[in-house]
Amino acid sequence: MDLVALLNQTPFLGLLGIEVTEAADGHAEARLEFSEDLLSNPTGDVIHGGATYALADMAGGAAVISLSKAVSPTVDMRMDYLAPATTDLVADGEVVRFGKNLAMTRVDVHDATGTHVATAHGTYKTDGQGEETPWADDSGLPDEV
What we know:
CATH class: Alpha Beta
Strand order of the largest sheet: 1-2-4-5-6-3
Shape: globular
Number of helices: 3
Distance between the termini: 10 Å
Oligomer: single chain
Number of strands: 6
Helix content: 10-25%
Strand content: 35-45%
């Protein structure tokens, strides 16, 4: 199983409708299709900021995991919301620093029209769980990652 397929088995992603489409070499992309279930209020047309945040967190985390080849939990994330999200979203995550214990990422989120909706800066743990992992088999990740 490849890394993208493994990440897409995450139950929370399925709940929100997030799909990881790329994860390799410190870069990842994730998509979120617009759904009325994600709206921030019953009379509006804006996706809740929490859904946008989850999308950015997944893209940043997937970028780190593509390098760490281990579970890499989020330590901290800062999100700047730049425009209302009213259509499908795409998040592009890049690792900007990868260290022994921590990695830093930048994630840009754009909507279907190309509008820059948000930017996030995330910090992730890179030394995973040591020998323990909640993922399947020995490492939880495929050898070719």
